[in-house]
């Protein structure tokens, strides 16, 4: 797990991996109940598309509603 904050281009980095689907779903449910989530699906605090950010293990909520998680898997290059 990376110590640096998640960045939008991390979604394209196959070495970072992704969290378990259930964790991503729980994170997104928290976001959907937050008044800072815009109708576009972006967070008013960080500006990220939360449906994608919740999948990253090195991502965390800027309001500390959910934290970093260990990756479930890493994507293989060339797949």
Give a description of the structure:
By secondary structure, this protein is mostly helical. The protein has a domain at 20-67. Helices cover 20% and strands 0% of the residues. The protein contains two helices and no strands. It has helices at 21-32, 50-53. The radius of gyration is 12 Å and the shape is globular.
Write a short abstract of this structure:
The protein is mostly helical and 79 residues long. It has helices at 21-32, 50-53.
Keywords:
globular, mainly alpha, 79 residues, single chain
Write the layout of secondary structure elements.
Layout: H1 21-32, H2 50-53
How much is the average pLDDT?
Answer: 86
Which structural class do you get from the secondary structure elements?
Answer: mainly alpha
Share in helix: 10-25%
DSSP strand tally: 0
Give the SSE order as H and E letters: HH
What Rg, in angstroms, do the CA atoms define?
A: 12 Å
User: Cα distance, first to last residue?
Assistant: 22 Å
Query: What is the makeup of the main sheet?
Result: none
Percent of sequence in beta strands: under 5%
Uncertain spans, ≥5 residues at pLDDT below 50? none
Shape: globular
